[in-house]
## 1
Amino acid sequence: MSGITEYTALFFYLPGDTVGMTKGVLGIIGCPMLDDNLVYSISKDPEEKRITIVDNEYDATIRRKLDAKGIPYELINWDDVVVGRFVPSGGFDILILMINLGLHSKPELLKSTVEEYTKWMHPRVDAIGFYLGTCGNYNWNIPKWCAENGYGRGAMFCDKEGNLCDDCVGVAISGGPRYLQMQKTYPGHFYLFPAMATNFDDFMNADQADTAATEESLTDEVREVLGIEPGRDGYLRWLLQLGGYEYILKIDTGLGSKEQFDADVLKVAERTHLKIKNAEAGWGDLGPTDALYDRCKSMLSQ
């Protein structure tokens, strides 16, 4: 299998037959950019389960989406998880910890944060599903790291060949090779899938401090010469123009609300002054999403 060892491929991409009753605690460490994928899998899984969400400042979107589908959940403080106050139901439990979406712009901090949370979560769960991208940490194989350091079993998003889906776009279209193909097919396009459109401000504000400092350093004369309009959106439009972007590529993954996706894409287009183009049918691919959830359940005792 290309790009990874046989061990990694086996560990990552084995969609298990989740027949019968699943028992055990599945831990989830996730990014809000990929909570649509988790909610989709939970909502289509008919098996009875108890969901517990760590109550923090990053859980708002997943709670809203679960509420919209009428899926019940409980809340717990992270400190209570750490000291062992999380008590499994004896059936199928899912313990969800969402992290800061803005960490995508700080790869080293993202890596250290996820690994630290994994160390503390591991004793309380039977396996961990990582609903996040590597975001600049090339070939960051978290399940392999878990196995090598005694933190149990884990699984990440991979394509059908077992290659890592390195970021949220890769998850949406099923992997790196497809990503390269998309870049060749749609050059000069800014990719938007449902969660990206919904979380556009949070995504762009991840490096807000650095961007604000750069903007403040620009004099009126420099702005006029470079053609940079006032405000954050003006600076963003200039960066996109500098990068040769002309279009938003709208990638419909089938996740979330289509009406909300349409509305959010229009808002982004208005702010960026980019034209909208729909990706051809077939680019959105839920294969990595289905496989990750299947793999997570197969790691638990049945």
## 2
Amino acid sequence: MRARRPWSARTRLIVGNAVALALNPPSQSPGVYPASALERIVPWWLTFLNTARPNAQGTIPNAEAAALLQTLVRRITTYIYDGYATGALDTVLDP
């Protein structure tokens, strides 16, 4: 059995960074992004990211898509953090 960190060690920042890496990793240079974990399994996710992220010129092709991406990251971060804080995810992830 692997050692688990107590939920209190999972700060919102740590959870938020993990969610962001899974959904939308930060750019390596203007307009260049590493693959997200989600785009490897959801065929249309990269298409969505390409409309929501700043391109090489620094412009965002679709402001509504960018706002939706920010909302997704924020809400999923809250969901995961709250799941750890209540212990609900501990039982789901390690029954």
## 3
Amino acid sequence: MGIKIEWSMTQNAWDKRVCKDYWAYNHKISYVDYVRMLCQKYNISSQTLFETISQCYACLDDVCCEYCGSACPIEVPADIAIYGQKRVGFVQYVSMLCGEVTLLANK
């Protein structure tokens, strides 16, 4: 289960670095602590962090909309582990931003 980041046309290299770091969350520390760490690393407020990352969106590379086939964005990196735990050997449906989605890869 990988992540694909869709960039805004207005994002510069710094914005992209911040977004990549944000979506690299690995669940070894709490999400809140991770956000604090990123704010300290880039010397920015949490408001600036979230304004920056709101310019892009991330999708799981093996999740798509059941109806239109488009990738569905995930809201926060902490959700990634939840979707990974939902895989139990058959196609499952998960409710996300764009409605019902299908996990494409089965274990």
